[in-house]
Amino acid sequence: MKVQELFKQADPGRIEEAYFLQHTIFYPYERYSISEKVDMVIRMKEYIREHVNRLATCEICEEEPQTIFIVELPCESYEEKGNTELTLFSIFDNEAYQKMRTDFSLWSGKEECRIEHYGIDMCKVESIAGYHIARSSVETLGIDACCAEILYQLFEFGYSDKSREKNIRALCERLDEGMEEAKEGKSYSYEEVFGHLWQKMLEHCADEDERQHMILKKEFEGKMEGIERRYTNRILEDNHRKLIALVREEYVARV
After folding, report:
1. Which residues on adjacent β-strands are paired with residue 71?
2. Which of 115, 172, 238, 239 has the most CB atoms around its CB within 10 Å?
3. Secondary structure class of 216 (helix, strand, coil)
4. β-strand partners of 72
């Protein structure tokens, strides 16, 4: 089934409900007033209905066939043990057909044995409408949840074509600048960046209780690092196996 057909079958009202159930939309706007949040919800519902109709009726931009997979997987953080989250990615069909009967991977492994996967947040609406949606995603999550997740990913860079194009362009420019800085040796590791930020926050913290809280929390996180890493690695391996099985099942069924 193509994404456009999925949205043609959908009930916009149910997609709205699924959207708000699946994602908290106010982060990082928790301090907005109730009235402001109500206004935001109303606008969000307008955006959702507009895009449901657009995806259901637009002229599809025919491109190399891709399939969208939406899967509910266990969270990778030990602190969120028992919780799940939705992950969405797309795969070029031709590449999948070529590698599905091999011992392929999605996240790691040799390049020749890896099926590359992509997000849809930078894709045009008309392109997404022409993608296929994995059968297992629809059967497991339902039409409402699948449509809501597609919209959530689509809105990552904005709610209009103009705002999305502007934000995507700005991101690409920042990435280009980062690449140039990396070539000049101006790159920093994740640990270096966040270590520097934490130190700056500590230096500017005037409340002694808050300072002690920051210090003790960091010490605790350091002691728990090994447990967290082992748990995360185990969940990542399990999730990877699940995704490989779903991808294989999808494409084998089409042959």
Report:
1. 87
2. 115
3. helix
4. 86
Tokens of 54: 């657009």
Which residues in 33-63 are b (16+ Cβ under 10 Å) and which e? eeeeeeeeeeebbebbeebbeebbebebeee
Starting at the edge strand that comes first in sequence, how are the strands of the sheet with 66-74 ordered? Answer: 84-92, 66-74, 132-133
Residue 161 reports pLDDT greater than 90: no
Alpha-carbon distance of 3 to 131, in angstroms, equals 6
For 73-135, give the DSSP string. Answer: EE-SSGGGTT-EEEEEEEEEHHHHHHHTTS--BSSSS-GGGB---B-STTS-HHHHHTSEE-H
Q: What percent of the chain has pLDDT over 90?
A: 51
Indicate the residue type of 204. H
Question: Residue 250 and residue 100: Cα distance in Å, rounded?
Answer: 10
Q: Taking a C-beta distance cutoff of 8 angstroms, is the pair 148, 15 a contact?
A: yes
